[in-house]
Write a structure and sequence with these properties.
Elements: E1 5-6, H1 7-15, H2 17-25, H3 33-42, E2 51-54, E3 57-67, E4 72-82, E5 88-95, H4 107-124, E6 127-134, E7 139-142, H5 146-166, H6 184-187
Parallel strand pairs: 1-4, 5-6
Antiparallel strand pairs: 2-3, 3-4, 4-5, 6-7
Length: about 200
């Protein structure tokens, strides 16, 4: 069986596999300052009923997308349907963070965005470009290196499905990001660790 994977779980899995397991398999979720700020950024694109037209470009928010081929589903934050010369689609994922120092999108963000692009290409059979809107810099960054993200997506999906299939909780990966994690109080990463 090929287990369904949600688009938003991809980023969580890359950030911390243990957090992903708690959130998406065990349904353990807590909000903290980072999730709250993320929710505020996403509130700009959460209205599914909002449809706008600008110069032949239809803009929709909170668009349901799926891929039967990869058994993925979820919500794309913002999709622009440009019908001026055939159909061309831009998908925009909103993030509270910032790009890499070299100006490229963060790998975690890019993976989730690329998965949305795959879904939209499968649905519409047309060119799809992807952008991350980083709220901290108030602009879009175009996703580059699609072959890298395609390979990464296939590897990550396989690994996620192995954990699910085997009902095997990933080990904790204790690092500097732990204290900023929304499930820190559930995970308690430093309890019982030899190097605590």
């Amino acid at each position: 069986m090929d287990y369904e994977i949600t688009l938003n779980s991809l980023e969580h899995f890359c950030f911390c596999k243990y957090q992903w397991w708690l959130n998406y398999i065990e349904n353990e979720w807590m909000d903290n300052i980072h999730t709250t700020l993320g929710n505020i950024v996403h509130s700009k694109v959460d209205d599914r009923t909002f449809i706008e037209n600008r110069n032949g470009v239809e803009i929709r928010r909170s668009v349901p997308v799926f891929s039967n081929e990869l058994n993925l589903y979820g919500i794309a934050d913002l999709v622009e349907y440009d019908r001026n010369k055939g159909l061309k689609i831009n998908v925009v994922e909103y993030k509270k963070g910032k790009p890499k120092d070299n100006g490229d999108v963060q790998d975690f963000d890019g993976l989730q965005l690329f998965a949305q692009m795959v879904c939209l290409k499968e649905i519409h059979k047309c060119e799809v470009n992807g952008y991350i809107f980083y709220d901290s810099i108030k602009r879009r960054i175009k996703l580059k290196d699609e072959p890298y993200f395609k390979n990464l997506l296939l590897l990550i999906l396989n690994e996620m499905r192995q954990y699910i299939k085997n009902k095997s909780m990933p080990p904790k990966n204790i690092d500097k990001h732990c204290r900023a994690c929304s499930v820190y109080e559930i995970c308690l990463p430093y309890i019982g660790e030899k190097n605590a």
